[in-house]
């Protein structure tokens, strides 16, 4: 009995996705709008399902992060109280004041770099062209966060 060898084609997904982002295939790259490619019900379903999944994941990750931060803070307080660690509160206060000054300095300029501004403009244009999909996503996201 001979052994049959199957030949497999290997697709390098990293190379494939460099030039073809998934959103361009899904949301009509020629028009830039899902409204011309899908009907209203399909747009709402796609937006709602992806929004719900995203909201559900955000809720779970948020709970995990809050538990980790709260637990870490609680353990630090216990270690400080029992004498395992000593906190230099003057140093903490000085560093907090420095951070406040830096935040005031950076927020007073309020200038965005051209790269960030162009990306923000692209996102706004996409959201305007795909308003039904965006609405479905927002609703699904809120439902996902609530469930």
UniProtKB/TrEMBL annotation:
Keywords assigned: Membrane, Mitochondrion, Mitochondrion outer membrane, Nucleus, Phosphoprotein, Transcription, Transcription regulation, Transmembrane, Transmembrane helix
Signal peptide positions on this chain: none
Compartments where located: Mitochondrion outer membrane; Nucleus
Mode of membrane association: Multi-pass membrane protein
GO BP terms, alphabetized: autophagy of mitochondrion
CC terms in the record's Gene Ontology section: mitochondrial outer membrane; nucleus
Main location: mitochondrion
InterPro entries: FUN14
Keyword Transcription regulation (UniProt): yes
Function as written in the Swiss-Prot or TrEMBL entry: Binds directly and specifically 1,2-Diacyl-sn-glycero-3-phospho-(1'-myo-inositol-3',4',5'-bisphosphate) (PIP3) leading to the recruitment of PIP3 to mitochondria and may play a role in the regulation of the platelet activation via AKT/GSK3B/cGMP signaling pathways. May act as transcription factor that regulates SREBP1 (isoform SREBP-1C) expression in order to modulate triglyceride (TG) homeostasis in hepatocytes.
Family listed: Belongs to the FUN14 family.
Name of the featured protein: FUN14 domain-containing protein 2
Species assigned in the record: Spizaetus tyrannus
Protein's gene: Fundc2
């Amino acid at each position: 009995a001979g052994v049959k060898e199957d030949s497999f084609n290997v697709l390098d997904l990293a190379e494939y996705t460099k030039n073809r982002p998934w959103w361009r295939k899904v949301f009509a790259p020629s028009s830039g709008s899902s409204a011309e490619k899908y009907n209203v019900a399909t747009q709402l379903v796609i937006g709602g399902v992806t929004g719900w999944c995203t909201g559900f994941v955000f809720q779970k990750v948020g709970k995990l992060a809050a538990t980790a931060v709260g637990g870490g803070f609680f353990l630090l307080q216990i270690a400080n109280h029992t004498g395992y660690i000593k906190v230099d509160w003057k140093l903490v206060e000085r560093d907090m004041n420095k951070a406040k000054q830096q935040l005031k300095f950076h927020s007073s300029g309020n200038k965005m770099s051209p790269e960030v501004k162009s990306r923000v403009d692209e996102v706004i244009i996409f959201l305007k062209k795909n308003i039904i999909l965006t609405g479905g996503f927002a609703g699904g996201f809120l439902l996902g966060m609530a469930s």
